[in-house]
Write a structure and sequence with these properties.
disordered N terminus; Tetratricopeptide repeat protein; Serine Threonine Protein Phosphatase 5, Tetratricopeptide repeat; 2 domains; single chain; TPR-like_helical_dom_sf; TPR_rpt; mainly alpha; 11 helices
């Protein structure tokens, strides 16, 4: 199974205020102090952006369930932003539920987001991750392909689609996904594992991608 990505607190900023930026920076620099500061900001009536910073701190502290609940609550607030922003926050909630091994709750949160922004390629990537956990490989393939058409891609979901194609015996198509994943992340472990699995069935990928720092 692919390791599900953590939600970065700054991945969707609810506001560009200096205090939000300072909160995120403090959480990254010192999680314990940053989480206390974020909670204090919430207690002071900091609003949606304060709660969003705190949700990011919850994720980093290893409390994805708490973060997921908080993110869903943020999406319902009047100060959560426009429809796009609400959908992004619900998408983050879905990823947090996945991190907490709650795929059904992840699917419910994602469904709310898709009702708000039905044509989002980014939401299709999250759907692919949920389908991957459920091992619904045809759905994985379709979701990643839809996202790719919208020019939204990630190494993680390329590997998911490649795994689905491998399971269905479409080895050359799976190899294409391995190459695509490694072109984005040359050290992606799951892509390298799938590359090895393909070699076992006679599909060798003789392409080397140097890590970015090289």
């Amino acid at each position: 199974m692919l390791v599900l990505s953590l939600i970065a607190a700054a991945s969707v900023a609810l506001s560009a205020t200096p205090r939000y930026a300072d909160c995120v920076t403090l959480v990254d620099a010192d999680l314990e102090i940053g989480r206390i500061a974020a909670q204090q900001w919430v207690n002071e009536g900091g609003g949606a952006d304060a709660r969003h910073c705190l949700a990011g701190a919850d994720i980093k502290a290893g409390f994805p369930k708490l973060a997921a609940v908080r993110l869903e609550e943020i999406a319902e607030r009047d100060d959560a932003g426009d429809d796009y922003m609400r959908a992004q926050v619900l998408n983050q909630a879905a990823l947090a539920w996945l991190q907490a091994d709650q795929p059904e709750l992840a699917k419910a949160a994602l469904g709310k987001a898709q009702k708000i922004v039905p044509d989002s390629g980014e939401l299709q990537l999250t759907a692919a991750k949920i389908y991957g956990v459920e091992e619904s490989w045809q759905d994985v393939i379709e979701a990643v392909t839809t996202a790719e058409k919208a020019k939204i891609v990630s190494a993680e979901t390329f590997v998911l689609r490649g795994r689905g194609r491998y399971i269905f015996g479409a080895y050359e198509r799976a190899a294409d996904d391995v190459v695509a994943a490694l072109s984005l992340e040359p050290t992606n472990i799951d892509a390298l594992v799938l590359r090895g699995d393909l070699a076992q069935v006679g599909i060798k990928i003789d392409v080397y991608f140097a890590p970015p720092n090289r």
